[in-house]
Amino acid sequence: MSIDETRITRAILAAALRDWEEISSVDVAIVGAGPSGMAAAYYLSRGGLRTVVFERRLGFGGGIGGGAMFLHKIVVEPPADEVLRDVGARYAEVEGAPGLLVLDAAELMAKLASSALDAGTKIVHGVSVEDVIFRRDPLRVAGVVVNWTASELSGLHVDPLFVSSRAVVDATGHDASVVEVASRKVPELGIELRGERSAYSELSESLVVEGAGEVAPGLYACGMAVARVRGLPRMGPIFGAMLLSGRKVALEIAGRLGAGRTTP
Ligand code: 48H
């Protein structure tokens, strides 16, 4: 077999451009490959919806990777163990703390990603969402505006590309950057960002899941983005609400868009 450089280049170009052509119009565009975005992607894809995740960085997991102050463990509480079992991530009960489960950060990142990919999610790294597409009659968010993270970092003026979608999910974490840009640049959506509050783990774990969902027509939030949008406390390195809010948003979108097999 001859390994010809031109063939390597053409193979990559052809496959990547084929993917981008498909990605240019999807059912759901998820912004951020952290725990909430990956959980949402897994359940959406499992339900048969064409789902793409755009991730600014070159890896999966968002805040999972740093564990807690770089210690490579995180905790989760029921009923988020249902998500752990769905993606095959192992966990252990915490002695003396009934209801708390502990697991490896690396395992959760890997299992969320591989489950989402196996279910059909397309994950594109090194791409940042810098804006949304909106439509009138009826007023709604109708997709995202994307650019290479490298051009964002370089400060060069490079015009973006567009991805239209039936739903957009802000899973960008503390920044809630998609909801933020939509609230600023499409004021008629009437989105109010209330700002994240100081730590209160137990309260936050339930309120983030409760608050996850549609923020404006076509635009949904899960994970820490919910805390910034709804004015909720942070919770520290406990990830139950991240997984459960991702699953909740997926089920809500699947219900609206009419997917089949998402329900666990
Ligand atoms: C493309 C983007 C963009 C963009 C950001 O921070 P994450 O892990 O988000 P969540 O909400 O799934 O999980 C939050 C959790 O990690 C956490 O921080 C917790 C529980 N904190 C509690 C506390 O008290 O501090 O992941 C977001 C991902 C990251 O990978 C970003 O790189 C990516 O989104 N991202 N990708 N375009 N505009 N903005």
From TrEMBL:
Keywords: Iron, Metal-binding, NAD, Thiamine biosynthesis, Transferase. It comes from Conexivisphaera calida. NCBIfam families: sulfide-dependent adenosine diphosphate thiazole synthase. Gene3D superfamilies: FAD/NAD(P)-binding domain. Belongs to the THI4 family. This is Thiamine thiazole synthase. PANTHER family: THIAMINE THIAZOLE SYNTHASE. Glycine binds at residue 234. The gene is thi4. It catalyses: hydrogen sulfide + glycine + NAD(+) = ADP-5-ethyl-4-methylthiazole-2-carboxylate + nicotinamide + 3 H2O + H(+). NAD(+) binds at residues 36, 55-56, 63, 129, 157-159, 177, 224. Pathway: Cofactor biosynthesis; thiamine diphosphate biosynthesis. Its EC number is 2.4.2.59. Its cofactor is Fe(2+).
